Amino acid sequence: MADQVLAFDNPSPTSFPLADAGQGVVVARAASLESALPGTTAVFSTRLGGVSRSPWDQMNVGYQTGDSPVDVTENRRRLFRALDLDVEHLVTAGQVHGDAVVVATASGHQPDTDGLVTLSRSLILAVFCADCVPIWLLDPKTPAAAVVHAGWRGTLAGVAGRAVEVMRRKLGCRPGDLLAAIGPSIGPCCYEVGPEVSEPARARLGPSVLAVPLPGGKARLDLWEANRQSLIRAGLDPLRVDVSGLCTFCRGELFHSHRRETVRSPASPRAGRMVALVKLPERRP
Ligand SMILES: [Zn+2]
């Protein structure tokens, strides 16, 4: 990778380096996946390198955010150009906070799903996030790739493990061969939830996902650990599951955060979006 790795404060500089992909477009790279199968792209955009104005500045890739669609289109163009990807091959998901996972065989939109998997060497799978957890999966042998969007509902529903199950059942992957990366998202440092979330989380996943119990049934929910456990239960080797440790709420210089915008401007929160992308390498000629 010819990227220049940047000297941001980063808890996982090896597994999730922050790098300038070109023209100031900074991305977090899921490095273990990219090095396991050279030519693979597995990245998360940041807010750096785009043209949007405050409060979506600079790189906002989400249209449903109140931002200028012209600026969002230009941001996506810059991101895809920096990564040398063709936006015509994009596959997006409806992101309905469920546990459905779909095998993508053509570009376009898959409405009722939070997970996309593919064997295609040309498709680019995408989920958009601004606090929710992006998860990448790669089977370097088959090869096959997946990307998953997991908010608290999807996390409790086990959508990450469901993606592993779909890769196993429909694509013939062996879970022990898979690598996973859990990307920047709201961390246990900041994700305070009420009893309507903490109680089902405790019942479904156990006390280990409640990082800090608080009075009144509140708690800080650890979505990273909950998704890591979901992947391990589905058969992944714990040593093959990377967690970025970058919190989107804490790290306003790097990431959009829906929760942070809601605190700042409760009446009309206007958070931008990042995108998690995965693409398998082109077949060698
Ligand atoms: Zn935080």
Q: In brief, what are we looking at here?
A:
By secondary structure, the chain is an alpha+beta fold. 24% of the residues lie in helices and 25% in strands. The chain has a single domain (4-185, 239-279), classed as CNF1/YfiH-like putative cysteine hydrolases.
Structural features, described:
This protein starts with a strand and ends in a 6-residue tail after the last strand. Helix 4 (159-171) runs parallel beside helix 6. It has a single domain (4-185, 239-279), classed as CNF1/YfiH-like putative cysteine hydrolases. It is built from seven helices and 17 strands. It has an eight-stranded mixed beta sheet. The protein is of the alpha+beta class. Zinc ion is lined by residues 187, 189-190, 247, 249-250. The site of zinc ion has 6 residues, from loops.
CATH topology, anyone?
A: CNF1/YfiH-like putative cysteine hydrolases
Total number of helices: 7
Distance between the termini: 20 Å
Helix content: 10-25%
The rounded Rg comes to: 18 Å
Structural class, by secondary structure, is alpha+beta
What are its keywords?
eight-stranded mixed beta sheet; CNF1/YfiH-like putative cysteine hydrolases; 17 strands; 24% helix; 285 residues; 25% strand; single chain; six-stranded mixed beta sheet; alpha+beta; 7 helices; binds zinc ion
